[in-house]
Backbone:
């Protein structure tokens, strides 16, 4: 029963009349931040020194997404 009461606690935002959950917006924002971080790493010439790129950039994406979530929705 308590889970049914908490089901509506997820923050939802209206974007041009369509409702999106906050976690989805944080995922999109994390993708943009990942693109910026990758561009900075490339411009600094550090990309050849990045280990397994798929793993490293996935971890950067996850860090950006969860950082946005904590930054905006942590109490």
Residues:
């Amino acid at each position: 029963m308590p889970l049914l009461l908490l089901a509506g606690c997820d923050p939802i935002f209206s974007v041009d009349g369509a409702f999106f959950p906050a976690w989805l917006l944080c995922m999109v924002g994390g993708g943009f931040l990942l693109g910026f971080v990758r561009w900075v790493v490339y411009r600094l010439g550090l990309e050849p020194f990045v280990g397994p790129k798929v793993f490293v950039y996935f971890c950067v994406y996850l860090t950006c997404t969860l950082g946005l979530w904590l930054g905006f929705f942590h109490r």
User: Anything to note?
Assistant: The helical segments are 2-6, 22-43, 53-73. The longest helix spans residues 22-43. The chain has a mean pLDDT of 85. Residues 33 and 58 are 12 Å apart (CA to CA).
